[in-house]
Amino acid sequence: MFVNLYRWSYGIVLYEIFTIGGNPYDGMTGEEVFSFVASGRRMRKTSTISPELYELMLRCWNKEPSKRPKFSNIVDWMETSYTRS
């Protein structure tokens, strides 16, 4: 169960890194965040996040925990996408 929460949290960490310290769910209380997420809504893509990275973040935030990417897949994707040849 906790691994699935970590996968969700990894999407949040990506948001914080690629928005250069952006505050996820800015201005929302914990209750508001819960309602926002429970309703199926997700944070928006910002201009500092590539479409491919945002897709990974959305996969991390999948409502179905079993459909969230495994860390090994995330690592593979990051190595492929963000390493120089």
From TrEMBL:
InterPro entries: Kinase-like_dom_sf (IPR011009), Prot_kinase_dom (IPR000719), RTK (IPR050122), Ser-Thr/Tyr_kinase_cat_dom (IPR001245). It holds the Pfam family PK_Tyr_Ser-Thr. It comes from the Eukaryota. Residues 1-83 form the Protein kinase domain. This is Protein kinase domain-containing protein. It comes from Porites evermanni.
